[in-house]
Structure formats: structure tokens, C-alpha cells
């Protein structure tokens, strides 16, 4: 007991939030801490002393009994079993390396490092402590940080969140993780875990907007939530169901049978489509069409439905009539997407005609008008006898402007017929009929992808991107049947774009320009200020923009947020910011 051993152990707490403070002459000097080591008493040497004492006692006892041992008869020989160890698998090796015995052995094998301890009043300790004092040669800056920014600087977000996640089940997400996600990521995480959910249940879990006057959270805008939700989910029975390609990513495989993800997604989409037609679905009927393994098909049904005796599989959530009545335009857009998806599924799955009886059919020509019977119904409640008239009703409710039929305003794909029959078909389709559902869906997906990645699109740039898209499509693709400028502009507005009216620089030809003015985050109000400024000028400086935001909202805009907004919507030239598409270089 004449000595004491202290053993160092690493501290699991992150040291990025800690600092060493030294107060001298009324000034507080702070030095950041890069690592924490905790010393604790270790009594391993006492165990070694006990073992050594027992060994000495046994050695002395063997010496005293040495003479008598010669008289004893020798022990009988016993057979020894020789065993050969099997080669260690990767899983067994991982378990062995994670065991306490292995970690304890590694820690004991770690070599000791000799060092000398200096008392706090010694000269060496004093000189080291003086290095914690900041020199007065550097000029101190005035502390002029706003309270919210200072609070974030004082308690920054945990950058090592991925490494310090608590051990939780796969189907559970902590609220701390949700708070650090954007709107799209939060919708994706919630939908993957919930599979099926009503809109009024999902809305409280989405990120809150911030009131610039009180700096307090306020309720999420439902339109913003729906815009983000449509990217990861689809509407079934008035409820939101996660998309199949989101649940089963590309290049992945089934955990039960190894079936590729695209095959499972195709079958799941067909199951969802059947639930849009009826509340009860027979597993046997679906299995004969999609031909998936029993385990995979059972997993799909269990995610979105429950078994009910004498009925089959019933959809998990009740029909949400409140959402359907409040947002009819969303329901109509989802109906168009589902009709286009069914056309693709019918080709890929080769659905027979007897399984196609529930699909709405559109007649080419009809001189007879149908009379309405019964009250208003949602698209998910349409019966087999009502599908024809319901589809016609949805088609007539779509608003469209008269489209130009000149050949210069159309973008076509593939060679034209020498007799001109393809041109006549294009003219008839754009003049007398609305765009087909498949064409509308493909066009909306294309424009939504470009608008959400570029934020600003001029009509000329959109036309150029569409030409590039057509060059990558095979001959006879649906996008090559004829798309006018009016249809392009109308589709941009439908996916969330807004036509911007701004001042154009001299010498630049003016054309329609569209932008994604809202993304659902806290900077939407600052973006609105940007559009007001660009109505009166064709260029601006970042300092002027920050000043305008502070005047309108009463809260200063940080440099990082200011630069993010300007980089998303503008280009810089000679220390000035111009809206994308309004300069010759862009």
C-alpha cells in the first residue's frame, strides 16, 4: 500500500462544447478543449500481489512434501484427446473481438508511457499556464451578435449525431433526429416508418416555421407540407402511402427471396392500385398477376392492410374524406398520376383483360352525352359501373389554355411520316383533346426534377433541356407526340413554379421566366423579399438585400443564409447579383 496507480480512460462525452477559462485582471481568457481524459484509481497491482503470494506458498509446500512424494506410486497414464480447431468464421471473429475478454487483453497489452508530474506552483507549471492568456497585441473585436445567433454559437448542434445515435429499434426515430432534418427528409423518414398515415396525423410531426417577429415556432403551412409529401408518398383512400421506389431503393434486393427491388416495387404498386379501387383486396387474385414469392407478397399486404375474415385484406386506415374534400386539386393530380402508372403496370405485368375490368376507360369518340346520377364521389370510391363517367368528369375539370399548333412551337421525337399523318395526329391531339395522362405525368416528372434542382428556369432554357431529354428517349416515346410552349408553361405552374416579372438588363431579349419561390424552410419569407427587390431592378448587392430583409422582417439575415439564397436564384458578375437567365452568360 505504499503506492497508488491512476489509470486513464477516454471520456465518451464530446469535448467540442468545453473550454478552459482563466480569469485575470477582470478579463476572461477562454481556450478550447480538444480532448478529455479521466484518471481513476486502479488496484490491479493488489491482485498481482495476491497471486504472487499464493504462488510462493504453493512452492514452499511442494518443497516440504518432496521426500514423501517419492514413496507414492506414480500416477496412471491417461489418454489425451487431441482436437484441431476449426477455421474461424467472420461472424465468430467479430463476436470474439467485441467481447470483454478481448478488449481487456488489448488494454493490458498497451504499453505504459512514462511522464513526470509537475506541481501547480512549480516554474514549469506556471509557464504552461501563462500560455492560456491571450496577448493584448491583437485587437479585440466588438461583441455584436444577436441573441439567437449567440445561443447557437454557445450551444452548437451535435456534429457527431450519426456516431452518437442511441441504440433504438429500426422502426423508431427519435425527435432529436427529426428536428435536424429538412422537410423532404423528415417526410421520407416518417413515411418509411409509418407506411400508411393520415394527413392530420402527419402534419404535427413536420418541421415548424419560425415567426420572425417573436422567434417562436408556428404551424407548418399545409400546402408546403403537401408539396414535400408528394415526392415520397402517393394518395390511396384519402391517406398517404410511401412510394414503392422510396421503400425499396434501386439496386437493392428482397431480404426474403432475393428478388430485385424494381420487381417488388412493380408488384406493390399494383396492390396499391387495387386498394384505390376497393377497400378489400384478395391476395389470391393479386398473386396471379404480379407473381411474387409468398413471403414478399405477405410483407406488402401487412404493411398497408389487415386481414379480415370472409372479406380478404382490408386497407389499414379509414377513408379520409376530410382531406379529399379540403384539397380536391391534390386528389385530382394524384388520380392522373395513378392512371398513368396503371398504364405502365398493365404493359409490364401483362395484365389480362379480366383483371383490367376495374380500370377507367376513355372512349375515343362519343356523340352521346351521359347524365349524372347520384351525389359526388371521390375517385377511390368509384365502382366498376361509374369509372367511365368519372374519368370523363376528371378530364373536363382540367383547365388548359388554347395551344398553338404551329410546327415551330412543337417538339417532336423520331422521324416524321412522309404522308404527313403524324403531323395531323399531333395537331388533332393538341387542338381538340387535352394531353393524355401518360404525357402529362411524364412531363410533370421531368419539369419538377429540373425546377427543384435549378430553382430558376426561362422558357428558352426549359425548351433546351426538353430537347436534350428527347434525344435520350427512344423513338416513339410519349414525350415525342407533341409538346407546345403553352403546355410547358402550364406544367411548370402545376408543379409549384411561379412566373417572375423582373427588370431585364438592356440588350437582353425578354422571355417568360419561372422560379421555385418556396421550398418549405425558414428562408421562404426572405425569398419573398428578393422577388420584391427584383421587380424594380435587374441587379443588386448582397448588402442591399440583407438590409431590405432586416427592414421587412425585423430580423437580420446571416451571411450564410444570404449567400445561399442568392446562389440558388442569381449569378454574380462584377460584384453584382443578377437573376439567372437574365444575362448573356447564363
Tell me the number of strands. 17
The strand line-up of the biggest sheet is 5-9-8
Report the mean per-residue pLDDT as an integer. Answer: 75
Poorly predicted segments: 67-72, 210-217, 354-433
Rg, alpha carbons: 36 Å
Strand count, sense and barrel status of the largest sheet are:
3 strands, antiparallel
Euclidean distance between termini CA atoms: 80 Å
Based on secondary structure, the structural category is alpha+beta
Per DSSP, the total helix count is: 24
Overall geometry: flat
How much of the sequence lies in strands comes to 5-15%
Helical fraction equals 40-55%
Which keywords apply here?
586 residues, alpha+beta, 44% helix, flat
Task: Provide a descriptive summary of the structure in words.
The protein is α+β, with helices and mostly antiparallel strands. The protein has 24 helices and 17 strands. The strands form 7 sheets. The protein has a 3-stranded antiparallel beta sheet. Strand 6 (209-210) and strand 7 (217-218) form a beta hairpin. The longest helix has 21 residues, at 44-64. The protein is flat and about 105 Å long.
Amino acid at each position: 500500500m505504499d503506492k497508488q496507480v491512476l489509470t486513464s480512460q477516454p471520456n465518451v462525452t464530446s469535448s467540442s462544447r468545453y473550454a478552459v477559462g482563466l480569469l485575470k485582471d477582470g478579463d476572461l481568457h477562454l481556450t478550447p478543449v480538444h480532448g478529455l481524459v479521466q484518471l481513476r484509481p486502479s488496484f490491479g497491482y493488489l491482485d498481482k500481489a495476491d497471486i504472487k503470494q499464493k504462488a510462493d506458498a504453493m512452492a514452499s509446500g511442494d518443497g516440504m512434501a518432496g521426500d514423501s512424494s517419492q514413496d507414492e506410486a506414480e500416477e496412471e497414464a491417461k489418454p489425451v484427446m487431441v482436437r484441431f480447431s476449426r477455421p474461424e468464421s467472420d461472424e465468430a471473429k467479430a463476436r470474439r473481438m467485441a467481447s470483454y475478454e478481448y478488449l481487456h487483453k488489448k488494454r493490458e497489452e498497451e504499453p505504459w508511457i512514462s511522464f513526470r508530474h509537475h506541481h501547480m506552483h512549480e516554474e514549469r507549471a506556471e509557464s504552461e499556464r501563462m500560455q492560456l492568456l491571450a496577448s493584448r497585441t491583437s485587437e479585440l473585436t466588438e461583441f455584436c451578435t444577436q441573441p439567437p445567433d449567440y445561443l447557437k454559437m454557445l450551444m452548437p448542434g451535435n456534429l457527431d449525431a450519426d456516431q452518437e445515435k442511441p441504440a433504438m429499434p429500426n422502426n423508431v426515430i427519435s425527435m432529436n433526429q427529426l428536428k435536424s432534418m429538412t422537410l423532404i427528409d423528415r417526410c421520407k423518414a416518417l413515411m418509411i416508418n409509418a407506411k400508411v398515415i393520415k394527413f392530420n396525423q402527419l402534419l404535427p410531426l413536420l418541421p415548424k416555421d419560425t415567426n420572425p417577429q417573436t422567434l417562436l415556432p408556428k404551424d407548418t403551412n399545409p400546402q408546403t407540407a403537401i408539396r414535400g409529401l408528394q415526392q415520397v408518398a402517393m394518395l390511396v383512400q384519402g391517406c398517404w402511402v410511401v412510394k414503392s421506389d422510396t421503400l425499396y431503393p434501386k439496386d437493392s434486393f428482397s431480404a426474403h427471396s432475393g428478388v430485385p427491388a424494381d420487381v417488388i416495387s412493380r408488384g406493390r404498386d399494383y396492390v396499391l392500385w387495387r386498394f384505390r379501387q376497393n377497400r378489400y383486396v384478395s391476395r389470391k387474385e393479386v398473386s396471379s398477376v404480379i407473381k411474387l414469392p409468398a413471403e414478399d407478397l405477405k410483407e406488402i399486404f401487412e404493411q398497408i392492410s389487415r386481414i379480415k375474415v370472409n372479406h380478404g385484406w382490408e386497407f389499414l386506415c379509414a377513408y379520409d374524406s376530410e382531406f379529399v374534400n379540403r384539397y380536391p386539386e391534390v386528389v385530382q393530380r394524384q388520380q392522373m398520376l395513378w392512371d398513368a402508372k396503371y398504364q405502365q403496370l398493365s404493359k409490364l405485368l401483362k395484365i389480362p383483360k379480366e383483371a383490367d375490368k376495374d380500370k377507367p376507360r376513355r372512349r375515343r369518340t362519343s356523340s352521346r352525352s351521359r347524365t349524372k346520377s347520384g351525389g359526388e364521389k371521390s375517385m377511390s370510391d368509384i365502382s366498376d359501373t361509374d369509372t367511365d363517367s368519372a374519368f370523363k368528369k376528371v378530364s373536363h375539370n382540367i383547365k388548359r389554355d388554347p395551344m398553338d399548333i404551329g410546327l415551330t412551337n412543337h417538339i417532336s421525337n423520331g422521324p416524321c411520316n412522309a404522308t404527313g399523318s403524324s403531323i395531323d395526329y399531333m395537331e388533332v391531339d393538341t387542338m381538340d383533346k387535352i394531353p393524355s395522362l401518360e404525357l402529362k405525368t411524364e412531363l410533370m416528372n421531368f419539369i419538377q426534377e429540373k425546377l427543384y434542382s435549378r430553382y430558376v428556369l426561362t422558357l428558352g432554357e426549359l425548351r433546351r433541356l426538353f430537347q436534350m431529354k428527347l434525344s435520350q428517349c427512344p423513338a416513339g416515346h410519349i414525350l415525342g407526340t407533341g409538346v407546345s410552349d403553352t403546355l410547358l408553361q402550364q406544367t411548370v405552374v402545376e408543379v409549384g413554379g411561379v412566373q417572375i416579372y423582373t427588370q431585364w438588363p438592356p440588350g437582353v431579349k425578354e422571355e417568360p421566366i419561372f422560379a421555385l419561390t418556396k421550398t418549405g424552410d425558414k428562408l421562404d419569407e426572405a425569398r419573398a423579399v428578393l422577388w420584391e427587390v427584383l421587380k424594380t431592378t435587374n441587379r443588386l448587392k448582397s448588402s442591399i438585400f440583407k438590409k431590405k430583409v432586416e427592414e421587412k422582417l425585423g430580423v437580420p439575415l446571416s451571411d450564410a443564409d444570404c449567400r445561399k439564397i442568392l446562389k440558388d436564384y442569381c449569378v454574380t458578375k462584377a460584384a453584382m447579383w443578377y437573376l439567372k437567365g437574365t444575362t448573356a452568360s447564363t
